[in-house]
Amino acid sequence: MELDLGWVRDVRVNLSATERRVATLPGRRTVKKDAQAAWLLKALTCIDLTTLNGDDTEGRVRRLCAKAARPVRPDLLEAIGMTDRILTTGAVCVYHRFVATAVDALKGTGIPVAAVSTGFPAGLSPHHLKVQEIKESVADGAEEIDIVITREHVLTGNWQALYDEMREYREACGDAHVKAILATGDIKTLRNVARASLVCMMAGADFIKTSTGKEGINATLAVSLTMLRCIRAYEERTGIKVGYKPAGGISTAKDVLNYQFLMKEELGRDWLEPDLFRIGASSLLADIERQLEHHVTGAYSAFLRHPLG
Q1: Close Cβ partners of 211 (under 8 Å, ≥ 6 residues apart)
Q2: What are the DSSP calls for 28-60, one per residue?
Q3: 181 CA to centre of own chain
Q4: Domains of the chain from N-terminus onward
């Protein structure tokens, strides 16, 4: 849609009410036993299994892809009664350098490859190189592109520049889904988070995402509530459903359950599926598998028994 600056400038966020709302969530919502196992199995289907390290190698990426295709040990699935289901993670997320490798490793699985782009994580590369990076990742087979916005546009209130930038990224992605990373820890205030969320959705983002995972502060429940309320307002006004991806710091099953509860309460059942909900994570899957093993055996196992590669 066209940029509606009136809507953007009218946005307000009640900080104390937001903090109260998320503080009560863990105490009000809990699931146990079979119900917890079911929620965790749903969560793993929404994970963008990620490796974004300077020492990544082709071998590591291929091992990650193998884990994405078979995220839970067969004996655990059998004990839970899920051997008739095909469970995979929502996507595999890598740097552009490894897109072709991941596409090859995931052939036949139906798992999409997501590429971080536009000068990830700082987003300060020359603009024409950012656009070219998107195009090259799409050409290599990436079906999803995680772009980083220019934080300066948010911090200086230059909403037109942010909108124009996001529109160019959207166009460069073609048929690939685009996730707009707001780097919420860098843009300081919940009002900035809300305004940036709206502008990116107006410019065509399929998902809005909290963080690169490289900032000092990444995904939080308060930031998530703010972004989810913007998604709800956008759907009410336009009829368009936009997805949500928290990333960075979500490493335990307990963490992800709180995000799932918040999604369900704020946006409804549709936003618990991978087409509208993703979790950017690397170590989360191992903890989910540990919790499933505890559900089956009554004992916790060491992390080394649930390797990601």
Answers
A1: 181, 182, 183, 184, 185, 217, 218, 219, 246, 247, 248, 280
A2: H----HHHHHHHHHHHHTTEEEE---TT--HHH
A3: 9
A4: 5-305 (3.20.20.70)
Interacting residues of 229 by C-beta distance below 8 A, sequence separation 6+: 194, 266
Give pLDDT, residue 309. 45
The pLDDT score that the predictor gives to residue 308 is: 65
pLDDT in tens, 72-127: 999 999 999 998 888 999 999 999 999 999 999 999 999 999 999 999 999 999 99
Which residue type is seen at 305? R
Q: Using alpha carbons, list the distances in angstroms from residue 300 to 68, 101, 294, 295.
A: 22, 34, 5, 9
Contact 139, 167 (CB under 8 A): no
235-272: pLDDT as tens digits: 999 999 999 999 998 999 999 999 999 999 999 999 99
pTM over 0.90: yes
Mean pLDDT of all residues in the chain? Answer: 95
DSSP assignment letter at 112: P
CA-nearest of 213, 214, 215, 182 to 197 is: 182
45/201 Cα distance (integer angstroms): 24
User: What residues are annotated to the active site?
Assistant: 146, 209, 245
Instruction: Give the full edge-to-edge strand order of the sheet including 113-117.
Output: 243-245, 207-209, 177-181, 144-148, 113-117, 91-94, 47-50, 279-281
Q: What percent of the chain has pLDDT over 70?
A: 99
CB 256 within 8 A of CB 287: no
User: Can the peptide bond before residue 307 be classed as cis, meaning omega within 30 degrees of 0?
Assistant: no
- Kind and range of the H or E run holding 274: none
